[in-house]
Amino acid sequence: MQLTVFLGAPGSGKGTQAKKLTQHDHFIHLSTGDILRSAIKEGTPLGVEAKKFMDHGELVPDTTMIGLIQETLKNLAPHQHVILDGFPRTVAQAEALEAQSTTKIRSAVLFEIADDLLVERLTGRRVCKQCGQPYHVRHMRPQHEGKCDACGSEVVQRSDDTESVVKRRLEVFHSQNKGLVDFYSKKGNLKRVNANQAPEKIQNLLMELLA
Ligand code: AMP
Question: 175-184: per-residue pLDDT in tens?
Answer without folding.
Answer: 999 999 999 9
